[in-house]
Amino acid sequence: MERVEASTKKRVVGGRRQGQASSLFPWLLVLPAVLLVVLVTFFPILQAINLSFHQTNYLRQGRFVGLQHYLSFFADPLSRQNLKNSFAFTFGSLAFSLPLALGLALLLNRPFPGRAMFRTILIVPWVVSQLLTALLWRWLDSPPFGPLAYILGLLTSSRVDILGTPDTALGGVILANVWRTFPYAMILTLAALQTIPNELYEAARIDGAGRWNLFRYVTFPMIQNTFLIATIILSIHYFNMIELPLILTGGGPVNRTELLGLRVYREAFVLFKFGFGSAVAMIMFAVNIVVSLAYIRILRAESRY
Amino acid sequence: MTHRRDVHAWLRLIGLYVTLLSASIFALAPIYWVINTSLKEERQNISFPPRWWPDPITLEQYVNVLTGSSIPRNYLNSTLLAIGTVVLVLVLGIHAGYAAARFEFRGKKPLLFILLATVMVPGIVTLIPVYIMAVQFGLHDTHLVLILVFAAWQTPTVVWLLQAFFENIPRELDEAALIDGCSRLGAFYRIVLPLSQPGLAAAAILVTVWVWNEFIIALNLTASNATRPLTVGLFFFVSESGIQWGKMAAAAGAALVPIIVFFAFLQRRFIQGLTAGATKG
Amino acid sequence: MKRPSRKSLRDGKPITRRETLKRIGGTAVGLMGILRARQAPAAAGRVTIRYWTWQNSADTKNPRAQAQAQFLGAFRKANPDIELIEEVVPWQQIFHQLLQAAAANKAPDVSKQLDRFVRPLADAGAILPLDEFTSSWSPERRNDYVYAWDDTAFDGRKFAFRHAVRPVNIMYYRKDLYEAAGFKTPPKTAKELTEMSKAVTKGNIIGYIEPFSKSDLLAKFILIAPPMYWTLGSDLTAPKTSKATFHLEAGQKIFQWYQDMVYVHKVCPVGQASMDSDTVNNMFMSGTLAATMDHTSKWAEWSRKEALQGRVDTDWLPNFANEPKPTPANTAGGWTVVMPNGAKKEAAWKLIEFLQSNESELIDAKMGGELPTRKSTLKDPFFQAPEAKRMTGWLTYMSANPHPATSLKIKKLEVLIDVLADAAQQIIANKAEVKSTLAVAAQKYDAQIS
């Protein structure tokens, strides 16, 4: 489909003048959306930056304290734990959800009786809210009545408390998270898989390619981009997650599941330290920007391939 | 030789079904457990070992939830918020998406970048100042502020999505309408828009699911039952029920079932919405 | 792609999308209109007030909720010109929700709040002093309370009235389990509690659990901690300076005891560091826990539970100094009513006044098992009857073992809870060294209250 771009500019629009009018018109169309987003997202970011440099008392902004909040964040040993938790959570979740998504997408790619049903079932967790996910898994994991705790208890003949034991708590959160989010990567990957024309497979098979090589040299390169996009979106989603861990474990035990976002929430909305909370939020934001930029570079590099 | 192939094929098929079945159990187990718990009598819920299916099945927990709590009101609020947000997002999104799809103009790239960059912003960063702003403007605890905030968060994705859909509609159609004497916008409303129904539907569904499931913004921007959506209502109900598993499960079930049904009926569009744009290139 | 003919474009599809959008928009506006109509101010002459409570009056299984339904009903009958709207906010969230709502000027007219959070609310300016309504009271009226006037007054201003006094350091225990293990009486000292808990911890049963999750703001521990410290001659914070004293010798003893219960005596599970009080109560109610501490008003509900009937009894908190003396009574832990919003002062005050009336307190005592706050209510014959024996027993204990209600005067209680929970979790889940962990917590608290 060719884009007749140049002619758009020159076209007479309902009797108005050319040139200026054609630049103003699209701007007017875009403006309301941009205004709303700027008002609710960008302006508050500036405010948050400002807040992070001040002392606060409940809702009142106090004196300017410069980088004090940032420094005290880095000086706090809990912060190291928060960062550790956030990265462990992100990578741990990716390590399970991506292979699961890819594997299931590959299985669902070729038609077979019942495919539509399976596909529907496997997407269901994605429509469940983080809150509900947390509640469901909390109930599944709670000893001694939760079925998962019960089954694990039978297998290990001891009382299993996944979410209450410091070393396994984050694993429990990862499990709930993977459950809810793998469908997203699965759908995206499946959609990309479906765009691969059969001829490519045929050609490769004629050339004598086995299953693994088929995947490596035909399938994967074709879905690479989409898979990468899914990875990016999921990893940002994971890093910034608050609701699921908040309701599932509240950050405990012993802060082993307190992700960075939870720390922000607790400092700001539980302890009412808006200034400090904003500073930590800014640090989160910085990590997001760095990671996103890195991803964008990777994307550009891959696309050129 | 063929015999061996057949056996192989059969084994693979069985393997396929077994794998998918296991995955399906994984996907549905938590939901099954909640429904199971919600249909049991209360005292059966603290039995050890756990009971795997309700016997007898009773609806008393659901009756409890629907008559003795604010959940029905929360349902109404969630519905209102979903409708309001979808309307606002679509109105803003179709115009912005159309401009992005059809026009080149100065500042287009940076503008679109800004719009998409909001995906990079963790929600919590803006929640603090938005809360303070809402308080200062007297908008705290109103439907309006929630709709505005929700719409702001969803607009960028919808613009991106709709841009992709509009780009797939050939320009020649616009041109033809213009030749016929339509104004630019007229061509848009009468020709392009009706043809983008799938895209609009997909966007509407995505936004609805997101709004329905949103929790943390609503938790901090509402202060009364008159505005609290279902997620917050459910959270409060669960906290208040303490250890009455059946009641909690029924509330969870009441929140879960509509969204799953909604999804089941509209999944095609939902999937379209999720995958649009991501499969480019 | 086939190009649609000109004709179909011209008279083609109507602007269906736009139409649908308009229709949806119209519905939304219509719905909001209905909503607003419902919220319209009450009929002329009627005042509407909002009351926040964590009891759900529609809950037929909870005796305290039923009591609320009844006395609020009595209020409505006595005040036909006031429309009372109840809003249920869970007790774990009601403090924070009120802070947020007050900051946004959207606070309810009257709210129930846990008494230990009155001071933080007053300090934050979230609630209004009530002196203008009580200035005309006679001294007899002022002294008609079983608790000191100053318990809920700060800087000379009265901020809250207690509704239901609860001695909170009582121990609920399974007498059948203790008897089966050979003990005829419940534990009276910490040593005995340890011994007896060990004896009954087997199979499915756990002897004792103390939850330390932050999610319910240390609901159980914060009630028994003050009397534990008092027994040992100390307190959580210094009454005059408000600085931390929870890390000194007394605190070290207490937390060492908790740590030993997990690792030395193997009674308490490590997971208690992240359990909340609801989980523990659930275990007790289902029969898998032998003892737990809670406030007196749980008796009405628990004594009727299937798994506990005839098997549960109550006694006082064991003496943590291992002396044969009773522990001072901690009466903080009940709830109060406060006025966050002065917009409808007179009507709001009427509700607050009614909740302390003899009529209302009697209903709460009979149906909900709550102790009244006023001496005049206690004159009712109900309290001489045998059913009320347990309740009057609590009152007798309170007056026999008094202690200043310092636990109500803690500055920035939410911060104290936060640092204590952190310390406790480290000590229990990570087996951290008690003295240094508590010292760090004390430093953190002191830094934030200056």
Quickly list its features:
heterotrimer; A: 305 residues; mainly alpha; MetI-like fold; 2 domains; two-stranded antiparallel sheet; 13 helices; 2 strands; disordered N terminus; B: 281 residues; 0% strand
Provide the fold topology.
The complex is a heterotrimer of chains A (305), B (281) and C (450).
Chain A: H1 5-10, H2 20-51, E1 54-57, E2 60-64, H3 68-75, H4 77-109, H5 115-127, H6 130-141, H7 147-156, H8 166-194, H9 198-206, H10 211-239, H11 243-248, H12 260-270, H13 274-304
Antiparallel strand pairs in A: 1-2
Helix pairs in contact in A: 4-8, 4-10, 5-8, 6-8, 8-10, 10-13, 12-13
Chain B: H1 2-38, H2 60-67, H3 71-102, H4 108-117, H5 123-136, H6 143-167, H7 171-179, H8 184-195, H9 197-213, H10 216-221, H11 230-241, H12 245-275
Helix pairs in contact in B: 1-12, 2-12, 3-6, 3-9, 3-11, 6-9, 7-8, 9-12, 11-12
Chain C: H1 6-10, H2 16-38, E1 47-53, H3 63-78, E2 82-88, H4 91-103, E3 110-114, H5 118-123, H6 131-134, H7 139-142, E4 153-154, E5 157-158, E6 161-163, E7 170-174, H8 175-180, H9 190-200, E8 206-208, H10 221-231, H11 249-263, H12 277-285, E9 289-294, H13 299-302, E10 312-316, E11 335-338, H14 345-355, H15 358-368, H16 375-378, H17 389-400, H18 413-429, H19 434-449
Parallel strand pairs in C: 1-2, 1-3, 8-9
Antiparallel strand pairs in C: 3-11, 4-5, 6-11, 7-9, 7-10
Please, could you describe this protein's structure?
The complex is a heterotrimer of chains A (305), B (281) and C (450). With 305 residues, chain A is mostly helical. In chain A, 75% of the residues lie in helices and 3% in strands. Chain A has helices spanning 5-10, 20-51, 68-75, 77-109, 115-127, 130-141, 147-156, 166-194, 198-206, 211-239, 243-248, 260-270, 274-304; strands spanning 54-57, 60-64. A two-stranded antiparallel sheet of chain A has the order 1-2. The longest helix of chain A is centred in the N-terminal third of the chain and has 33 residues, at 77-109. In chain A, 46% of the residues are buried. Chain B is built from 12 helices and no strands. Chain C folds into 2 domains: 47-166 and 332-406, D-Maltodextrin-Binding Protein, domain 2; 170-328 and 412-449, Periplasmic binding protein-like II (D-Maltodextrin-Binding Protein, domain 2). Chain C has helices spanning 6-10, 16-38, 63-78, 91-103, 118-123, 131-134, 139-142, 175-180, 190-200, 221-231, 249-263, 277-285, 299-302, 345-355, 358-368, 375-378, 389-400, 413-429, 434-449; strands at residues 47-53, 82-88, 110-114, 153-154, 157-158, 161-163, 170-174, 206-208, 289-294, 312-316, 335-338. In chain C, helix 3 packs antiparallel against helix 15. Chain C is globular, with a radius of gyration of 26 Å. Chain C starts with 5 loop residues before the first helix and ends with a helix. The chains are: A mainly alpha (305), B mainly alpha (281), C alpha/beta (450). At the B-C interface, helix 3, helix 5, helix 7, helix 8 and helix 11 of B face helix 1, helix 2, helix 4 and helix 12 of C.
